[in-house]
Amino acid sequence: MNRRNFLHGTFLAAPLAAGTLPFLGRETLAQRTAAKTLKIIHNGNLASLDPIWTTAPPTKDYGFLVFDQLLAVDSKYAPHPQMAEGWTVEDDGKTYVLGLREGLKFHDNEPVRSADCIASIQRWGARDGFGQLMMKFMDTFEVVDDRKFKIKLKKPFALLPAALGKSNSSQCFIMPERMAKVDPMKQVTETIGSGPYRFLKEEFVSGAKAAWAKFDGYIPRKEPVDSISGGRTPAVDRIEWSFISDPSTAMAALQAGEQDYWDAPTLDLIQVLKGDPNIVVSARNPTGSYFMLQLNHAQPPFNNSKMRQALAMAIDQNDFLKSAVSDPSLIRPCYSYYGGDSPYAGEAGAEIVKVGKLNQAKIALKEAGYAGEKVVILGVMENPVLAAMAQVAEDVMRRMGMNVQLVAMDFATMAQRRTSREPTDKGGWSAFVTVWTGSDIVNPAVHQMLRAGGPTAWFGWPNDPEMEALRDQWANAAGLEEQKKFATALQVQAFKTLPYIPLGSLVQMVAYRKNLTGVFPCPVAAYWNIGKN
Amino acid sequence: MSRRADIVIGGGLLAAMIVLALLAPYLLTGDPRALSPGNRLLAPSAGHWFGTDQLGRDLLTRVLYGARISLFVGFSVALLSSLVGTLVGMVSASDRRLDAIVMRVMDGVMSIPAILLAIALMAVIGGSVLNVIVAVTIVEIPRVARLIRGIVLSLREQPYVEAAVAAGTSRPMIVWRHLLPGVMAPLIVQATFVWATAMILEAGLSFIGAGTPPSTPSWGNILADARALWQIRPTLIFFPGVFLFVTLLAVNMLGDGLRDLLDPRQAPET
């Protein structure tokens, strides 16, 4: 032993023997804090804090942490009480009576009242497709007391509980009345909800990080979790999101243990992650991801249905899907406006998107009268799959002979720019590639992109009264067979109108470290119930 | 390494790169933008010497076409910033009051980090190759202008310039006959460094998505596309990286050699 080793051993051994360095033998404060903090690599910046105003996935995920819902659907899309104690139906299905659970309160410790719920339903009903459908049946709201209210309908609407408890696209989150009274076309700025986690606004750095703390006043349900229904238990004290746009950096952070969970790992890297014994890779959302080429129906050239049809003829789903991932087991072409697990999935009317012939598309484009109008594609470059598909779309349009420009941007910029209805030379757009989950497109009610009410429709603003009428007929249909008939007719009409062009489906994966517990199958990115050893 | 070796190796590599870039359409029949998603991420092979990228595009074709963008941007910026910077520097040195104003403006521009200024300019004028040239030229002009101003201030105190003034030679003629030749040597050297800097800036801007459009192959774009996939296909980073490295090395070696040749005081002792 040399002198240095001797001194080193002596300095360490003496205090240990005396018990004066307890941190060496026990869990440190930092370790305990780390075990109570769930660190998530989140795909896409949190550009908006209003889940009613936008359907952007990061905002939706934020909404599920901060807010709660009156009802919530299970994995079979059957509604269950969530904030509600339960509900009763009166007056031959024309009145729903909802009672709130005792002790529910917002993050400012104010109690959740019937007035908050009514104002929240009204704001959501002004923006969401299913909400708008429900509002067509609405007569009045009636406050019975602070914990009970009635929803009175003009005629029965059996889908009301499913609407209030929907899991996908835009959810009916309950906000304090003052927030819910904000114009639905404007964003709320407050972040007060009654969900399991409080948003730490002072720690939010747009584009870098966001954080939440466990809300001690939250009372989870006792039932086991099933999709978004059941107990939403805050299993960690703190949740942190890091916005890491570079997939290699994200993967390295997960592998090094600096992060716990990656909500959207790049599919090409799945094999590398699977080879790491500390990482679990799973398809947490069993319904998959569905990609769409959204077209702007309000501006030339895609305000002309013939142009949209010409473009649809040129699209080959396999080119788009293969551009995203090499593993064929993750690729699922889908020639339907409904997801593969929808009861309405089928290829009725889908002939136009199965053509996949460039020459035929060129002829159709010429016949449609294309005169060189500029096509601007909004390309989200931070997401490798969306970036690849945007480039494939540009390639297809260029080869068709269109005057096309692919504008590179991040998701947050795209989410802002897609709201513009201006011409392309004034900051508008013509097309962008977007992605929804299978749960988002499972039926005509939740399917935001099948809304065709012009200004009230989703970005792209398709306008087809026949589609709107068919959706209403579906909502009024008596039995399953009749519902399927109208849902199919709606799809056939949609393939004529082409609100968007389906690009097919990919299996959606998440990756997380093995020490996480309670990761449950869910069609949305819900982070309650997830703990950490 | 001797100055002559620097010039020969640097110049030779740069010339080779220029020839490859110019002949790119004739060396290969492929379209650098032609997608083939079914052939994505292929390893280097006889059919695709550098392999293919994530959209099935031939990487060799894209790297060679990328050389055109990088070299064109570098050369254009070097030329434009030299011309404008020389003009600004000479005008500034010729008038004391104007000098105070112009140099404060140049100081202001130089106080902003080059890449940040370039990003800001690109955000305003939009992404295209020409706009990249404009943005990077604006970033580089102050550096040239400051150099030229300093040299002209020194030159105008020289006896031969004072003699010309005393002889009644017109100011344009003094500039043309006596000052301009004096600044040419350092200007050429500076231009080579501007060239290299411009190529790095272009690659950086394209890498972060603020430069050339995604469909236009440039080395920055190619590297940006590959950053998510380098673990599974390292060649996607390796080949464009090597081309960028070799070209920058060549330009810098040429610049060093020219500096030593044109300014003997700077030459290493032999």
Q: Any descriptors?
A:
heterodimer; A: 533 residues; alpha+beta; 16 helices; 23 strands; globular; disordered N terminus; B: 270 residues; MetI-like fold; 9 helices
Explain the overall architecture.
- The complex is a heterodimer of chains A (533) and B (270).
- Chain A is of the alpha+beta class and 533 residues long.
- Chain A is 30% helix and 20% strand.
- In chain A, helix 4 (114-127) packs across helix 5 (129-137), helix 10 packs antiparallel against helix 12 (358-367) and helix 15 runs antiparallel to helix 16 (480-497).
- Chain A is globular.
- Chain A starts with a helix and ends with a strand.
- Mean pLDDT of chain A is 91; it is low at 1-25.
- Chain B contains nine helices and no strands.
- The interface between A and B is medium-sized, with 33 and 23 residues.
Structural class determined from secondary elements of chain A: alpha+beta
Helix percentage of chain B: over 70%
Structure summary, number of beta strands of chain A: 23
Q: Strand percentage of chain A, roughly?
A: 15-25%
Instruction: Assess the beta-strand content of chain B as a share of residues.
Output: under 5%
Order of strands, main sheet of chain A, comes to: 10-11-12-1-13-21-14
Order of helices and strands of chain B: HHHHHHHHH
Oligomeric state of this protein: heterodimer
* Protein chain pair with the most extensive contact, residues per chain: A-B, 33 and 23 residues
Mean model confidence by pLDDT of chain A: 91
Largest sheet of chain A, if any?
A: 7 strands, mixed
Low-confidence stretches of chain B: none
Tally of individual domains of chain B: 1
What is the CATH class designation of chain B?
Mainly Alpha
Model regions low in confidence, pLDDT < 50 over at least 5 residues of chain A:
1-25
CATH names the topology of chain B as: MetI-like fold
| Principal-axis shape of chain A | globular
What's the shape of chain B?
elongated
